[in-house]
What does this fold into?
Amino acid sequence: METDPAATSGLPPGAVKAFRKRMQLIRATIDERDFYQLKSLHYEKLKGKRSHQHSMRLNDQYRLVLEYEDKSSEKIAVIVAIEDYH
It folds into this structure.
């Protein structure tokens, strides 16, 4: 979905555009502390059964859900889902 302009996975165009921007941001950041500094992302650690996951806002309706894997000395962000929070 990120590299194919025709791929939308059934999401509205605004959510797809925001997803692509977030992916660029994820690649450009050094670590997850950068996400907390950008208040507009509403980046947060989830709770309960999902306490191993984090989420950030794509737009008013959709959020990007992430998990982190430790690979040697790096943390790798893995996209789990794009979810409708309404």
About this structure: Residues 13-84 form a domain with the YaeB-like fold fold (CATH 3.30.2310). The helical segments are 13-28, 33-37. The chain has a mean pLDDT of 85. The CA atoms of residues 21 and 51 lie 25 Å apart.
